[in-house]
Design a protein that fits this description.
single chain; 204 residues; mainly alpha; 11 helices; globular
Length: 204
């Protein structure tokens, strides 16, 4: 599983026309691996106001919700356009930032709905695979970047190898070995190469 796939699963756990509070929780999950601080700051302010608007009755609340959700989504869209104009990607968190954000969510896990608890436990279970790219220089965090990362046009059999999680991990290990200048040289024994990359070995 790549981060793009994970984010799609997270978004799918929330209704398209939900509350501000639900949108806030969604962005807190999306915030694990990518910096969504700006969106969260806006949503936190709206969430406080939402609690007061709920007390004013359904008609006023629904009108307020529709208006504010529209404002929020427009601001997200404008930030995306700004990044595209600058040819920038969404800022990816460092490994330790991701750990901190995820740990905070896990502390609060009992306060979330069952479907969100399940998603957080799934992330916890797959944490090793989701974060492997942090420990291989220049490795892509998303599978759809694999072809761009390794080659502009891969051979058919290489594409098939990269369709599986194991294949992607193996290619990342091979690239790490190549970057170390090990392949094509006789100075190092096979055992020495093996020991150099023990942290990246596929134990599954």
């Amino acid at each position: 599983m790549c981060l793009l796939h994970l984010n799609k699963l997270i978004v799918g756990n929330f209704p398209k026309h939900g509350t501000i509070e639900q949108e806030l929780i969604k962005y807190r999950l999306l915030n694990i691996f990518y910096n969504r601080d700006a969106e969260i700051e806006v949503l936190e302010g709206m969430a406080k106001e939402e609690q007061m608007m709920i007390l004013k009755g359904d008609v006023k609340y629904m009108a307020w919700l529709k208006s504010n959700m529209s404002i929020f989504r427009q601001s997200v869209h404008e930030r995306e356009l700004k990044r595209r104009r600058k040819d920038e990607n969404l800022e990816q968190r460092t490994f330790f930032e991701a750990v901190k954000v995820f740990a905070t969510l896990m502390v609060e896990i009992d306060s979330f709905d069952a479907v969100i608890q399940k998603r957080l436990r799934m992330i916890e279970k797959n944490w090793k695979h989701l974060t492997e790219f942090y420990f291989v220089e220049d490795a892509p965090a998303t599978n759809n970047l694999v072809e761009n990362y390794y080659s502009t046009s891969l051979k058919t059999h290489r594409k098939k190898q990269l369709r599986t999680e194991r294949g992607i991990r193996n290619q990342m290990k091979l690239s790490a070995i190549k970057r170390a200048g090990v392949l094509g040289k006789c100075e190092k024994t096979l055992l020495e190469v093996f020991l150099m990359f023990v942290p990246f070995l596929d134990t599954g």
